[in-house]
């Protein structure tokens, strides 16, 4: 059983396969995306885990989706609006390295990949913070390992919901 299956089991989610045009999405990013993230998005709809952690939808074209949020952050960075907001990191540029936002929480937590086109997407660390003005936390684990620990590990601070929610669940917005 892989982590996606464990998340499905922990949340008692009735997974149904969703088609995502990963080729088009990855072409626009200029890089492949982590395989476990893709599998997770295909199993879950747009929604929140335990009423808290939101996975950005890959298909959305607006600023609430994975691609739209990345494009918005790049535009804001280029205009100077985000000059130091991501220090010591920067927003990902195709062919290079930097941050790609893949999720957030209802309390302003932000979850990014520290993407690097010279490394396998499966090796990208997660960098996260509890507030846009707070320090970064780095985790050398996969996207699904991060989500699983948020949902089930009381000691996974400061991001865990395990002590606050009786049992992990997933609620779709669709």
Describe the overall structure:
- The structure is a single chain.
- The model has no long low-confidence stretch (mean pLDDT 92).
- The longest helix has 13 residues, at 66-78.
- The radius of gyration is 15 Å and the shape is globular.
- A 7-stranded antiparallel β-sheet has the order 6-5-4-3-2-1-7.
- The protein has helices spanning 3-11, 22-29, 35-43, 66-78, 143-152; strands at residues 47-49, 53-55, 97-105, 110-116, 126-129, 137-139, 170-172.
- Helix 1 (3-11) packs parallel to helix 5.
- It has 174 residues and is an alpha+beta fold.
- It has 5 helices and 7 strands; from the N terminus they run H-H-H-E-E-H-E-E-E-E-H-E.
- The protein has a single domain, classed as 3-Layer(aba) Sandwich (SMI1/KNR4-like), CATH 3.40.1580.
- Strand 1 (47-49) and strand 2 form a beta hairpin.
Task: Indicate the topology.
Layout lengths: L2 H9 L10 H8 L5 H9 L3 E3 L3 E3 L10 H13 L18 E9 L4 E7 L9 E4 L7 E3 L3 H10 L17 E3 L2
Antiparallel strand pairs: 1-2, 1-7, 2-3, 3-4, 4-5, 5-6
Helix pairs in contact: 1-5
List keywords for this structure.
174 residues; alpha+beta; SMI1/KNR4-like; 28% helix; globular
DSSP E strands, number: 7
Strand content: 15-25%
CATH topology: SMI1/KNR4-like
> What is the spatial order of strands in the main beta sheet?
6-5-4-3-2-1-7
The whole-number mean of residue pLDDT values reads 92
- SSE order: HHHEEHEEEEHE
Choose one word for the global shape. globular
């Amino acid at each position: 059983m892989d982590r996606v299956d464990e998340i499905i089991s922990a949340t008692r989610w009735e997974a149904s396969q969703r088609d995502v045009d990963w080729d088009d999405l990855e072409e626009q990013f200029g890089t492949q995306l982590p395989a476990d993230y893709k599998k997770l998005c295909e199993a879950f709809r747009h929604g929140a885990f335990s009423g808290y952690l939101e996975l950005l939808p890959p298909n959305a074209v607006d600023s609430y989706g994975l691609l739209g949020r990345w494009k918005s952050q790049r535009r804001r960075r280029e205009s100077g609006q985000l000059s130091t907001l991501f220090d010591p990191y920067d927003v990902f540029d195709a062919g290079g390295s930097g941050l790609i936002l893949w999720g957030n929480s209802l309390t302003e937590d932000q979850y990014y990949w520290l993407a690097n086109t010279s490394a396998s997407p499966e090796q990208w660390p997660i960098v996260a913070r509890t507030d846009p003005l707070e320090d970064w936390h780095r985790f050398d684990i996969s996207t699904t390992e991060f989500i699983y620990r948020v949902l089930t590990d009381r000691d996974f601070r400061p991001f865990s919901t395990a002590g606050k929610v009786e049992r992990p669940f997933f609620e779709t917005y669709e």
